[in-house]
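Sat 14:20. Reprocessing the chain from the morning session after the first attempt stalled halfway. Input below, unchanged.
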Amino acid sequence: MKEDELGLSLAKWHRRFTQQGEWTQNIRRYLFAKAHIEFNDKILEVGSGTGAILDLLDEEGYRQLFGIDILYHSLAFSRSSVESYHLAQADGYDLPFPDNSFSLLYSHYLLLWLENPAAMLTEMARVIRPGGYLLALAEPDHQARIDFPPPLDKLGRFQTEALAEQGVDIQLGRKLAKLFHQVGLVEVEAGILGAQWTAEMLHNVDQTEWLILRADLMERLANEQIEKYQDLEASARKHGSRVLFIPTFYAIGRVSKNSII
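Finished this time. Tokens:
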């Protein structure tokens, strides 16, 4: 099925990515401060997509922003909204930059999609100056997903299985710290983003979530079954009992001044 037939236009994906960027804003600011990043430092996002995170950083005052993505149409969308950062179509396994080019590299919901995340992290570290930092701002661990109340736990399992079939590493989150150590980064810190459920969050549901869910499950469940689950979730949210938690990990590591990555 084509993207527009699912209702998943780039504009809707961008809205979703922006929402995810707002979820990780606090940890991003904490990690940027830990890395001593200044507004004029050179920063690269690998897998910049529609430019959602770059837009947020641009609004915060960062002035030397770069993004690469393998998908041209995502880059074109990004370029249509903001022209104050630099974009290139490139593969994260082969970055078009010389060694020691950036103070900081980061990714956001990227590594779980990769066949060989260690290889890409090694390539990312190559273009960071000695003493600079590499950040993974958000990597979920879908296998540890919690859904409540039943039978919404079945819906969660169905989506996790669908993601695994798409090539997602559903355990990537728990592996993140090990990967950072594996590629030779030092002073590695890793953790899990916090989770809170407020009345506003329970009642204000972004319908893009259900569009994505339908896309994931269209080969597994009939439309009527998905609609039944959607009604069950709406009821759980109305009564304040809905819990959906996917542990989402972050990590930061420094490129050693003596490193030859």
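The chain has one domain: 10-254.
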